């Protein structure tokens, strides 16, 4: 395949590995890529952009070649211009296709019962590892074409972030959030992550169990209420003496 030598040369030049990332701590390791239909989704968008560019540039160059032949009555400048333009369009189209294909191949997801690791990018590789015990929110994003292809983007937001929307808009990884783009059976993946999150809660790595925390607060707050009541009574007595003028200051 023509893409194979380009892939090997580019990976060697950029000094990146085609292998998946190492799994973070935890058990039940699952390593997977985006769905093959996600590559189809990317290539459909690429085909529309490429067709538009070819029509615009090709139409303009064709009109210029016809004008050259009619005005100069020579054929070779038109052939030279048309051939150079066709070669340029072919090279650009092939390289853009290769970039999309390699970007898809370099996108990896690693899920364990404790962590989620996302790696993406070729020239600028980005990787983030999220601790499931710190996950605050899990969102699902799906556009019309994604619904047609049964694809889902799963947005995972952890504590201290509030950055999942930015991650979804500008990339797949962020310091406190990550996006698993183009996954199949997104509802199953969300359920699996939620189950791991609930399992990790209350283990000292994340938030305290919501069923235990209120009981501890009430138990610790009972003596505090009594102290606050005494302070209130003292304040009322002091205000009464100030108003009546009976308060006496002693050395």
Can you offer a commentary on this structure?
With 251 residues, this protein is an alpha+beta fold. The chain has a domain at 211-245. The chain has helices at 3-14, 36-72, 76-105, 144-148, 164-170, 186-200, 213-244; strands spanning 30-32, 108-111, 115-120, 126-131, 135-141, 152-158, 177-183. The protein has a four-stranded antiparallel β-sheet. A three-stranded antiparallel β-sheet has the order 5-6-7, with helices on both faces. Helix 2 runs antiparallel to helix 3 (76-105). The chain is elongated and about 115 Å long.
Which key terms come to mind for this protein?
251 residues; three-stranded antiparallel beta sheet; four-stranded antiparallel beta sheet; 7 helices; alpha+beta
Q: How do the helices and strands follow one another from N- to C-terminus?
A: HEHHEEEEHEHEHH
**Tally of contiguous helical segments:** 7
Question: Portion of residues in helices?
Answer: 40-55%
- How far apart are the first and last residues' alpha carbons, in Å? 99 Å
């Amino acid at each position: 395949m023509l893409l194979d030598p380009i892939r090997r040369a580019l990976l060697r030049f950029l000094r990146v590995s085609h292998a998946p990332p190492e799994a973070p701590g935890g058990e039940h390791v699952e390593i997977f890529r985006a769905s093959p239909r996600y590559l189809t989704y990317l290539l459909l968008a690429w085909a529309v952009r490429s067709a538009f560019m070819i029509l615009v540039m090709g139409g303009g160059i064709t009109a210029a070649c016809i004008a050259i032949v009619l005005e100069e009555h020579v054929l070779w400048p038109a052939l030279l211009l048309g051939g150079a333009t066709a070669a340029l369009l072919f090279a650009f189209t092939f390289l853009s296709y290769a970039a999309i294909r390699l970007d898809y191949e370099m996108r990896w997801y690693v899920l364990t019962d404790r962590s989620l690791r996302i790696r993406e990018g070729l020239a600028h590789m980005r990787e983030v590892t999220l601790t499931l015990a710190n996950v605050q929110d899990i969102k699902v994003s799906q556009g019309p074409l994604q619904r047609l292809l049964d694809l889902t983007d799963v947005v995972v937001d952890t504590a201290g972030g509030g950055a999942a929307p930015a991650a979804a808009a500008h990339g797949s990884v962020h310091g406190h959030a990550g996006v698993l783009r183009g996954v199949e059976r997104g509802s199953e993946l969300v359920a699996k992550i939620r189950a791991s999150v609930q399992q990790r809660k209350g283990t000292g790595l994340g938030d305290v169990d919501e069923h235990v925390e209120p009981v501890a607060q009430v138990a610790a707050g009972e003596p505090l209420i009594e102290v606050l009541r005494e302070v209130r009574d003292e304040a009322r007595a002091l205000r009464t003496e100030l108003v009546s003028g009976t308060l006496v200051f002693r050395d």
